[in-house]
Write a structure and sequence with these properties.
Blueprint lengths: L3 E8 L11 H16 L8 E5 L2 H4 L5 H4 L11 E4 L3 H13 L5 E9 L5 H4 L16 H14 L5 H14 L17 E3 L2 E2 L8 E10 H7 L4 E10 L13 H10 L8 E3 L5 H11 L6 E2 L14 H14 L5 E8 L5 E8 L1 H4 L1
Parallel strand pairs: 2-3, 2-4, 9-10, 9-11
Antiparallel strand pairs: 1-7, 1-8, 4-7, 5-6, 8-12, 11-12
Helix pairs in contact: 4-11, 6-10, 7-10
């Protein structure tokens, strides 16, 4: 296995609407920033991989237009996943492991503002039994929250505290969309209140991966990917225990998260109830600082929020604020798909 690290991370300021910006306009500053951190030029990158969803844009192959922000001439080695950018990072990591590249640029973006996200996300449900009923993402998350309450794992007061803690942490995050004293609000879908749900917004993120000595040359303190894995639950919600996440636990186990304690965790938990599930599945106690960036409750650009969790965890290692961090990304209803990575700084590696 080759040693691979995240050596740079950049993200946009996340906003409720960016009507004046195209996907390319949204991406360009982020791509320029992440390349500028390393001093690399686009034609010096060995592999480029992106994550996005055509359903958000409402047109097929919309991701090809985003390549204008990268610069595809002269020809580049490029790929795309119709997933959160965290899965694009996984593909880039595999590409570097094969020896076909020493560096990779990974980016993702999502403009949720043009449509009604709660309706758009129904298109990822089982097309025969669930999708025709149009249960939206908030309603499904509310089912999960109610299952947790019925099981005695949480209550509405505890969920409100999770929302408040995340958004208080986001006060120090200049890119966050919601920060500070955000009220719990009224019930959106019982038992979830508006404060238990993520903001809708537009945003983009990018990271650069590098292997071995190249990583050392590009970054003073690389965030080494010591393990990374992703797993999936059954597609049918009716056969799942919504109070648990076996796929997240298995991904963490395969990534080595349980080998020794982590000091930081960036969890992709768009709803407060999902943080309860993930903390239990990943064995995270009070000694672990969870979502110091504010997490997805502070900013949740669809298709970029998972990559941002990896980037935020890596950035803390770059700054010397963490030695061993866990980063998590999810996709699909009620934590259906889960990716876990373990990142370490140089001192932890030594």
């Amino acid at each position: 296995m080759r040693d691979v690290a995240i050596v740079a991370f950049a993200q946009s300021a996340h906003r409720r609407r960016t009507d004046e910006l195209s996907e390319v306009d949204l991406l360009m500053p982020v791509l320029h920033e992440v390349l500028g951190v390393t001093g690399l030029k686009a034609n010096e990158i060995g592999f480029t991989c992106s994550g996005s969803a055509d359903y958000l844009a409402g047109r097929a192959f919309s991701f090809t237009m985003a390549l204008d922000g990268v610069g595809a001439h002269p020809p580049i080695s490029e790929s795309h996943v119709e997933m959160d950018g965290a899965w694009a990072l996984y593909e880039a990591w595999v590409k570097i492991q094969t020896g076909e590249a020493d560096t990779a640029l990974v980016y993702s973006y999502g403009k949720s503002s043009p449509g009604r996200v709660r309706d758009v996300l129904t298109r990822q449900l089982d097309p025969y039994y669930l999708a025709p009923l149009w249960p939206d993402s908030v309603a499904l998350a509310a089912l999960q929250a109610q299952a947790l309450i019925d099981a005695g794992d949480t209550d509405e007061g505890a969920l409100a505290e999770i929302g408040a803690r995340n958004r208080t942490a986001a006060v120090d995050n200049p890119y966050a969309q919601l920060t500070g004293d955000v009220p719990a609000g009224d019930h959106l879908v019982h038992p979830l209140r508006t404060g238990d749900c993520p903001p809708i917004g537009d945003g983009a993120a990018a990271v650069i991966l590098a292997a071995g000595d190249t990583a050392h040359a590009l970054c003073e303190r690389p965030a080494w990917i010591r393990g990374i894995d992703h797993r999936i639950e059954a597609h049918s919600l009716g056969v799942r225990d919504l109070t648990d996440s076996p796929s997240a636990r298995l991904a963490a186990e395969r990534a080595g998260a349980f080998d020794r304690p982590v000091d930081t965790a960036e969890l992709h938990a768009p709803f407060t109830s999902q943080e309860v599930v993930l903390r239990k599945a990943l064995g995270l106690g009070d000694e672990v600082r969870v979502n110091p960036s504010g997490g997805s409750l502070a900013a949740n650009p669809i298709m970029a929020a998972g990559l941002i969790r990896l980037g935020e965890a890596a950035a803390r290692i770059h700054r010397g604020e963490s030695d061993r961090a866990l980063a998590h990304a999810t996709s699909g209803p009620c934590l259906q798909q889960n990716l876990v990575a373990v990142l370490e700084g140089e001192s932890a590696h030594a």
